[in-house]
């Protein structure tokens, strides 16, 4: 199923679209998304919001979880002949998808509706971009999406409980 879905996406490649997809997948490297989470945390501190470190902690945990799983699982990426960009580390789960969906979940928990919808659309586009450039199997992207979302949701639940206990 993975190979079939990946082949389908790769067959949809288009010369006019490819530079945009490559730009999206490059701009959303997990390290860049983590920097954005740190900026969001700093903004929350300045606004005196509850749980100001939540974005940075949640995104950091998602990143660490994804990185650790890559080396535990050790899954190889699709063949080099399919890749528009060369990626060398293990494939499962997708770090880009983990970071993008973790960020979307942070937006869901902290922001207004417009930003939430935009964040999920961008996360889906990032996941699809990883297939388009041929560096992940669909199950890598799905696992990254689930991992990122779940780690953020769990982090939020724990940090909210801790904040509530401190407020008493």
Automatic annotation (TrEMBL):
UniProt membrane topology term: Multi-pass membrane protein
GO molecular function, one term: undecaprenyl-diphosphatase activity
Domain Phosphatidic acid phosphatase type 2/haloperoxidase: 51-156
Pfam families linked: PAP2
One cellular-component annotation, GO: plasma membrane
Catalytic EC class: hydrolase
Keywords for this protein: Cell membrane, Hydrolase, Membrane, Transmembrane, Transmembrane helix
Keyword Hydrolase appears in the UniProt entry: yes
Gene3D superfamilies, sorted: Phosphatidic acid phosphatase type 2/haloperoxidase
Enzyme Commission number: 3.6.1.27
Subcellular location: Cell membrane
Record bears the keyword Hydrolase: yes
Residues passing through the membrane, by range: 20-46, 53-72, 117-135, 141-159
Protein name: Membrane-associated phospholipid phosphatase
Lineage: Bacteria, Bacillati, Actinomycetota, Actinomycetes, Mycobacteriales
């Amino acid at each position: 199923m993975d190979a079939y879905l990946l082949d389908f996406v790769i067959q949809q490649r288009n010369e006019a679209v490819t530079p945009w997809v490559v730009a999206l997948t490059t701009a959303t490297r997990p390290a860049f998304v983590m920097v954005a989470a740190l900026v969001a945390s700093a903004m929350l501190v300045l606004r005196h919001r509850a749980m100001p470190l939540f974005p940075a902690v949640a995104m950091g945990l998602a990143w660490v979880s994804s990185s650790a799983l890559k080396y535990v699982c050790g899954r190889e990426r699709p063949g080099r002949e399919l890749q528009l960009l060369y990626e060398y580390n293990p494939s499962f789960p997708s770090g880009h998808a983990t970071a993008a969906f973790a960020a979307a979940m942070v937006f869901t928990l902290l922001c207004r509706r417009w930003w939430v919808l935009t964040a999920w659309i961008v996360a889906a586009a990032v996941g699809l971009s990883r297939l388009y450039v041929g560096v992940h199997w669909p199950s890598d992207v799905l696992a990254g999406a689930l991992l990122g979302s779940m780690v953020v949701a769990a982090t939020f639940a724990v940090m909210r409980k801790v904040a509530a206990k401190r407020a008493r």
